[in-house]
Structure formats: structure tokens, C-alpha cells
Amino acid sequence: MRWIKSKLLGVIAVLVLIYLFIPIAVVGTLSFNKPEGKYNTSWNQFSLDAWTNICGVPGVCDSFMISVRIGIISTIFATILGTMIAFALVRYRFRGRATTNLLIFLPMTTPEVVMGASLLALFLNLRFPLGETTIIIAHIMFTISFVVVTVKARLQGMDPRLEEAARDLYAGPRATFRYVTFPLVAPGIAGAALLGFSLSFDDFIISFFNAGTVVTFPIYIWGAAQRGIPVQVNALATLVFVVALLIVLTSQFVSYRKRKALEAGMHSDSAIVGADVKGLEAAMPRS
Amino acid sequence: MANEGTHNVEDLHLTNLTKKFGEVAAVDDLTLTIPAGSFFALLGASGCGKTTTLRMVAGLEEPTSGSIHIGQQDITNLRAFQRPVNTVFQSYALFPHLDIFENVAFGLRRRKVKNVDAAVNSMLELVELAPMARRKPTQLSGGQQQRVAVARALINEPDVLLLDEPLGALDLKLRRQMQIELKRIQTEVGTTFVHVTHDQEEAMTMADTVAVMNSGRIEQMGHPADIYELPKTAFVANFLGQANLFAGARTGTSSDSIDVVANGINFRVLSTRNSAPGDEVIVGIRPEKMTILDLHDKDTIPSGHNMLEGRVIDVSYAGVSTQYLVETQWGQKVTVFEQNVLVGDRSSVGDPVVLHWSPDHTFGLAGGETVLADTAQILAVGA
Predict the structure, then answer these.
(1) HSE-CB of A188 using CA atoms within 13 angstroms
(2) Which of A134, A192, B78, B278 could form a disulfide with A150 if both were Cys (CB 3.0 to 4.6 A apart)?
(3) Does A190 touch chain B (CB under 8 A)?
(4) A270 interface with B at CB cutoff 8 Å
(5) Same domain, B213 and B254
(6) Which pTM value belongs to this model?
(7) Does B147 lie in the same domain as B52?
């Protein structure tokens, strides 16, 4: 009984993790399958066909590239605009600041179906031809909110004295931004851009309403699902997952190295000046 | 910027400097000259306006009125990055994304100085951090970060170096060490240092001149020992060290001294040590200047000394000295420090004692009971 109690938390944690990773594992495994019929749902035979001939099915790679392109373009616009909004909200006091702060959350809370449908109505009323442009406009719109929230958090966490120190050390407004503010906010902006890209890349609902005849990757999969999803889709999805995983692992590794270097630094320092670790802790930033 | 060697340090003048936040004057009509090359401390409780004064000199805060000059040059309307003034910030504000070398080189690079290496390295030598050049600030201890902050400011050879509570984040032992270190650096470079602090011990050990600030104004300014030995206001007497104060009234004046009666007891205050213009006088004495005696030995007190009877209500032994709390007949608690030089009996709780001290150590301050009450209140809020 006691044994169960002490291990319960660990067991539950492992179960939850398994639950989270089963779908990904299934996708990955089935990318090496040679399905018996047209539905790639049960294991039949190991095969590298989908991987060696990843664009083998008509349309799959085209749609993939369309999604990547839309993702990159809308991320660039959303990141620039969102970063500027974040700076305005954190740095300046202006009329309507509180309202803007509130409104910026709206796209995050509005149901996608509603947003997709109303955007479609808008484009039709304006007689704006549906296509990649309308998808990009829609994606920029809803990713901006996420960028603003992410960059704002980073900016608010920044010690205002760092910019004062830069001004004190002969940096004018431009130099202060270039050499102090931007490098310090950059990780937040990069994070926001990654988030924006992944939101845009896998968006289905809003894209579907505003796509016209353009077939993005999610729309392609949805369409293919009616007839049986080709194995190549599994391969591409696994590829995306692996790339994302590599990005995460790299950033983890870099911060691990930094931490290690920090600890090593602390030891040799204390040997030089006598251990004043307390002072160090007090002086360390909150992060 | 002047070249090395020919660097001409000039006085810093603040003239009628005022800073209002809304209706509240943080700095109130401050006029002050800080001599070139001095180590000047602005001492005061939090919210007394000392940091605001410093920020106005740095250019990080705009004065409501008044002007700031360095020598003949008016810097009141120069932006922070245009002033020949650098700051050591509270908690240092080192750039976390740059290594120590680049932090120190920052000011030189912004002014497009070529070949910064030699200057940065010799500055790192001065603060004894040369081996740390390629570390990031978070990899350094508090004391080391503090020295980087000093180096980063000093490398620009400012006319004035401003230090905003520079030792606040350090623990006591390290703080002592850094006080000596800062004083050494100041002596070595000869730049004017303006040091803002709430720590009276810090101000006294480092500064040539201390200005005690209260409610946006300077209460008293001078050499630390002079201010300590002869405070001119009740606030200074209490803020800079401890003092026993008795509010009384002048009853007589002789050639070199005045008589003040407080709570029925007559005290003699030398005219040269009295700053009260009128008849209301606060008599003050520092705790270590008093001698505590058993009431039986009252006859041994030299004539002309001021004296006071009471009863010991607390004794705390602190190694170097013993601190007594003595209650007078009217219920005031008087603090007395006795150096532990004599072996033998000490007074203990409940003992009737007599305290005596020379008029040479007695000082007279302007004001009565209300001044004492106000001072106590300001100090309580500040702490």
C-alpha cells in the first residue's frame, strides 16, 4: 500500500506522458508502413517508400510548400507589427492604451470558426479574390496577438535601468535600442516568431474559409482523409515533428551549456575573492 | 573628453535645483557646490530626494527648475548621453548579454574610440578583474559585478562619477571591503565622486564631505567628523549616529557659554557649540561621550561637567563597549556607551547611577519638543 502511494505520482506522470506521445508515435510508425488497402490505419509491412519518394503523391509537396510559404510571410509581418505594438503598449502612455491591451486578446479568444466565417464575409463584400493573399491576411491577424503577448512579457521583465545605463554611457536613442534593448528582447521576439509560424502552419479552420482554390497542407490532409491519407503525409508530419524537436533540443542544450559554464565560473570566482555566493545570489537577475 | 594626463576636473554646481513630482517637491531649491576631485556623500533616509538629485545630475531626470553646471559649462539641458558624467547604478545594471570586457568598453565604443583594448585592460587591472574579461556578468559575484560597474563608468574619464547606493546589494563583510576599495580607486583616479547612500557609516568612512539631506533639502554639510561632533539640527544628530537630546529653555548667558534648563536640570552649552538662535534650545550629547558612575561616586565628577541622574534599565555587552539604557526621573531613556577598558564591576539593571560629560562635547540645537517629535517621526518612516 505504502509502495503504491509513494510511486503513484510517478506512475501517473508516466501514463500522462505516454498518452501525450501515442498519437505522435503512431504517425511516425505508420510513415514506415506499406498499407494493404488505401487506408493507412493498420500495420502491414515495413517500407521506406514514403520516405524515399516523399513527394510521390500529387499535390502533397506543393501544399506543404504553400503552407511553409504562408507561414513564413505571415510570421514576418505579424512579428514586426506585433513587436511594435508590444513596445508601444509597454513603453508609452497614450489614449486608448488600456483598450488596446484588452482588444489585443480578442483574436485569441474568438472561436476560429466565427473568425473564419466573418473574414470570408468581409472579403466577399470587398470583392477581394480569395487565395494565398487572403490566407496570409487572416494569419497575420490572429498571430499578431500571440506575438504581442510574448514580446510584451519579455519587455516587462527587462530592467529599465539597463537602458538608462546605456544612455548614461553615451548611447543615443538609436544606439540604446540597437545595442541594449533589441539584443535583450530578441529571444522573446524569436520565440514569438516560432510560435507564430507553428500557428500559421497548422491552421485549418480560418484557412479553409478563406483559401479559395489554394490547398494548404492542413487542407490537403483534410481532403485526403476522405479517400485515404497517403503515407507521404505521415512522413512529412514526422519530418516536421523531428525538426521541431531538434530546435527544442538545441535550445535546451545551449542553455544547459550556459548553466554549466555559470557554475564553473562561480567555483573559480569564489576561490579568487573568497566565497561570497550570497552576494552573487542577491545580485543575480530573477531569471 | 580630455586626454589622459591633462584631464581637468572641475567643480560641480547645483543652483536652485528643484524637482517636483506633481505637487510634491522631491528636491527643494537645492544649491550646492561639490569641489573637484572630492569624494562627496549625499546621505539621507529613503525618499529624501538624494537619488532624484543624482538622477538629475546624470540627466535621467529633468529638473523642474534650477541649473547644473560643471565648471562654467551648463549641462542642465544636455541629454544623459551628452553629459561628461557617468553613473554606477544601484544593483549595477550590467548588460547581461555582453561579457565583462564589452560592458567596460561600451561607453568608448559608443563614442567611436578606436583601439579600446588597452584602455579596457588597464581599467580591468585597476579593479582587479583582468582574468574575468570574457565572463558574463551573471558569472561574477556581487562584489565583482560592483567593480565592473565602477570600471564601466570610470573608463570614460567622466568629470563626475555618480554612485547610487553602490554597496546596497552586498553583504556586510564585502561592503566593508568595497568601501576601502572605492576609496582607493577614487584616490588613484582623482575624479569627483558623488555617492548617494542611506548608510551613515558608509558615508562617513568614504567621503571627504558629507551632506545630510532631509525632505529635499540639505540639513548640514561638512567633513564627517565635524558633522558628527557638532550637528546643527536634531535630524542630523539622530541620523548620523545616535544622540541623547533634551528639549529645554535658555536661562542665562555668560561670556563663553549659555545655561539651559531642561526637565529641571541645568546644562551648560558652550556658545561656540550652540546653534539655537532663540531661547528654545535642545541640549544634545553623543552616547560615547558620557561617563556612567555609581550614584555614590557623584563627588568625583569634575566641576563644570553636565550631569544627570537615573536608573539603569538595560545593559547589553557588545565586546568593544557596553551599552546602557538609563531612565531619567522624568522617564526619558538615555543611551550610554562605555568602552570596556576597565576590569571590574559594571553597573547592572536597577542601579542608581549618575551620568556626566564635558560641555566640550555638549551641543545646542534649535527647537523644542515638537522638533524632537517630528524628527523621530521622519526617522521612523525613513527606516
Answers:
(1) 24
(2) A192
(3) no
(4) yes
(5) no
(6) 0.78
(7) yes
Residues of chain B with C-beta less than 8 angstroms from the C-beta of A285: 96, 138
Distance to chain A for B182, nearest Cα, Å: 16
| Contact call for A279 and B143, based on CB within 8 A | yes
Domain final residue, candidates A203, A229, A255? A229
Same domain, A11 and A123: no
Q: Are B184 and B84 contained in the same domain?
A: yes
Give how far B335 is from chain A: nearest CA, Å: 34
pLDDT band at A232 (very low <50, low <70, confident <90, very high): confident
What's the gap between Cα A276 and its chain centre? Answer: 40
Nearest to A169 among B106, B142, B174 (CB): B106
**Looking at the predicted complex, does its ipTM rise above 0.90?**
no
Contacts with A181 from chain B: Cβ below 8 Å: none
Q: Do B60 and A184 touch (CB under 8 A)?
A: no
pLDDT at B7: 54
Whether B76 and B122 have beta carbons less than 8 Å apart is answered as: no
Q: How many domains are contained in chain A?
A: 2
Band (pLDDT 50/70/90 cuts) for residue B176 is: confident
Please choose, from the candidates B276, B301, B277, the residue with its C-alpha nearest in 3D space to the C-alpha of residue B290. Answer: B301
Q: Is residue A113 part of a domain?
A: yes
- Kindly report the nearest CA distance between residue A282 and chain B, in angstroms: 6
Query: Is there a single domain that holds both residue B98 and residue B175?
Result: yes
For residues B280-304, average pLDDT:
91
Q: In what order do the strands lie in the sheet with B244-253?
A: B265-270, B257-262, B244-253, B280-285, B363-366
* pLDDT, tens digit, 9 for 90 and up, residues B333-347: 999 999 888 766 678
A159 touches chain B (CB under 8 A): yes
The answer to whether A199 and A214 have CB atoms below 8 angstroms apart is no
Containing domain of residue A93, as a range?
A: 60-229
Segment holding B291, helix H or strand E:
strand B291-294
Rounded Cα distance between A270 and B139, Å, is 11
B133 shares its domain with B223: yes
B241 in helix, strand or coil?
A: coil
Question: Across the interface, do A168 and B87 touch by the CB < 8 Å criterion?
Answer: yes
**Is A250 part of a structural domain of the chain?**
no
Selecting from A164, A269, A272 the residue whose C-beta is nearest the C-beta of B60 gives: A164
Last residue of a domain, one of B228, B260, B277: B228
Per-residue pLDDT, B319: 85
Give tens-digit pLDDT for A105-145: 888 888 999 999 999 999 999 999 999 999 999 999 999 99
Tell me the residue range of the domain where B188 lies: 12-228
**pLDDT surpassing 90 at residue B128:** no
| Cβ-defined contact of B80 to A168 (cutoff 8 Å) | yes
Backbone angles phi and psi of B321, in degrees to 5: -140, 170
* Averaged pLDDT for residues B340-358: 85
**Contact assignment for A164 to B132 by CB distance below 8 Å:** no
Same domain? For B244 and B158 the reply is no
Are residues B216 and B286 both part of a single domain?
no
- Is A161 in CB contact (< 8 Å) with chain B? yes
Q: pLDDT > 70: what percent of chain B?
A: 96
Mean pLDDT, to the nearest integer, of B167-190? 85
Q: How many domains does chain B have?
A: 2
